[in-house]
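Work Package 4 report. The design task specified in the project plan requires that, given a folded chain encoded as structure tokens, an amino acid be chosen for each position. We show below one input record used in the internal validation round.
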């Protein structure tokens, strides 16, 4: 099976098997956002458990 390359670039697997994703909202229009908000957006977030099965289907090697 082929890996979906777009998904491969966006998601990473944690040590416990959860899927990590970057937070949205840090690409443009950043002048109006507080510095604390921008620093929070730099951190990674976890994919919701209800979506994990769909994403793992795009990444068959996991």
């Amino acid at each position: 099976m082929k890996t979906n390359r777009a998904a491969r670039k966006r998601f990473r697997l944690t040590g416990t098997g959860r899927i990590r994703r970057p937070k949205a909202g840090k690409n443009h229009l950043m002048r109006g956002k507080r510095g604390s908000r921008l620093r929070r957006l730099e951190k990674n977030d976890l994919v919701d458990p209800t979506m994990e099965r769909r994403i793992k289907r795009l990444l068959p090697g996991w």
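The chain has a mean pLDDT of 95. Validation will be extended to a larger panel in the next phase.
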